[in-house]
């Protein structure tokens, strides 16, 4: 059964480790992540962006697939199904479809509007026992080939949003989605420290987990990060393994064209990436 992310993140924050959110794109992705979490006895959060939700034929299809896998694969570790960077409408749709957790990304609204919309969704989630993530300070990334710098959140605004009763808070600390440019300035631990000082026990979320060096990840966890999002790194691992399979001509040997064979190296590569991250984040054995 899907669970809210509240308990796993409260434990993670208190225990000074982080739970990984791994974004899913299809059945192979979901299966690889769930199997790895079970094998390592780690809690896990499956992230679904609005685009990925659409690609997988809508939120209800995603909920059906994930619930089916939890049962058929005998998954007993805590699993949350979480909307990633949701719009206000998308968040409501996921609540109705059976997600156990949502993110409302109101970081691009003026703070008053972010507060009003977040409040409405906090109330809806509280009634149903779902977890909710809010964001302050937008997280940069590549859009149309231009890499935007990650903003640093205002700690006072973080406190205002945290006080609304959200479960976890994503604060921009110079992190960005996708690969980091060579001239990236690194995470702003000063901002993170100030945000934690204002928000206390609130589990903080680090987006853009791909490519952040291990020592920065560890320092971020020591300063209150309890959830780390990883997406691009699994995509790159899948791509590299699939490319290798085809370049070696394996798809042309025997039944190598069978999608169950063709997609297997990519799935194994996702498993290896998820394992490496869970070990780094310290969530292994914390189910
Ligand atoms: P990356 O794609 O950089 O790993 O970021 C993932 C993320 O933050 C999803 O919200």
Question: Could you please describe the fold and organization of this structure?
Answer:
With 287 residues, the chain is an alpha/beta fold. The protein is 48% helix and 17% strand. It has twelve helices and eleven strands. Helix 2 crosses helix 4. The chain is globular. 1,3-dihydroxyacetonephosphate binds next to strand 3, strand 11 and helix 10.
Average per-residue pLDDT, rounded, comes to 95
Ligand species: 1,3-dihydroxyacetonephosphate
Strands of the largest sheet, in order across it?
A: 1-2-3-4-5-8-10-11
Q: Give me the strand/helix succession.
A: HEHEHHEHEHEEEHEEHEHEHHH
From the alpha carbons, calculate the radius of gyration and give it in angstroms: 18 Å
Distance between the termini: 14 Å
Question: Can you count the beta strands?
Answer: 11
The largest β sheet comes out as: 8 strands, parallel, barrel
Record keyword descriptors for this entry:
287 residues, alpha/beta, three-stranded mixed sheet, 12 helices, 11 strands, globular, binds 1,3-dihydroxyacetonephosphate
